[in-house]
Write a structure and sequence with these properties.
Shape: globular
Helix content: under 10%
Structural class: mainly beta
Radius of gyration: 13 Å
Number of strands: 11
Order of helices and strands: EEEEEEEEEEE
Number of helices: 0
């Protein structure tokens, strides 16, 4: 069983960049596909992006494509989310999640980290 802890959140201005980290313990992240989700106040949790077990194939919806980059360092047991050109609508609680099959619903979740983007 893997445990996940997010870090790197904070408060930034629109147009700024931020990098989130998701550090795993208890198991190797090479055994899991990993995804980032986010939840804004009053909204449902939504998918942000994902990366496969090996870390060589990522998927992005149109809402973040070209601005966000997910990467995976299995040697460090860490997944990163590089967020560029941030917008106020990116403000949310960001969650890291892992699943051995890479299928929804993901089995393992971090507690989340707040990202706030001011205009």
């Amino acid at each position: 069983q893997v445990s996940l802890v997010e870090s790197g959140g904070g408060w930034v201005h629109a147009g700024d960049s931020l990098r989130l980290s998701c550090i795993a313990s208890g198991d190797s992240l090479s055994n899991y596909a990993v995804a980032w989700f986010r939840q804004a106040p009053g909204d449902q949790r939504v998918f942000v992006c994902s990366i496969n077990h090996a870390g060589d194939n990522a998927y992005y919806p149109d809402s973040v494509k070209g601005r966000f980059t997910i990467s995976k360092d299995n040697a460090k047991n860490t997944v990163y989310l590089q967020m560029n050109s941030l917008r106020p609508q990116d403000t949310a609680l960001y969650y890291c999640a892992a699943d051995p099959k890479g299928e929804h619903p993901f089995d393992y979740w971090g507690r989340g980290i707040q990202v706030t983007v001011s205009s």
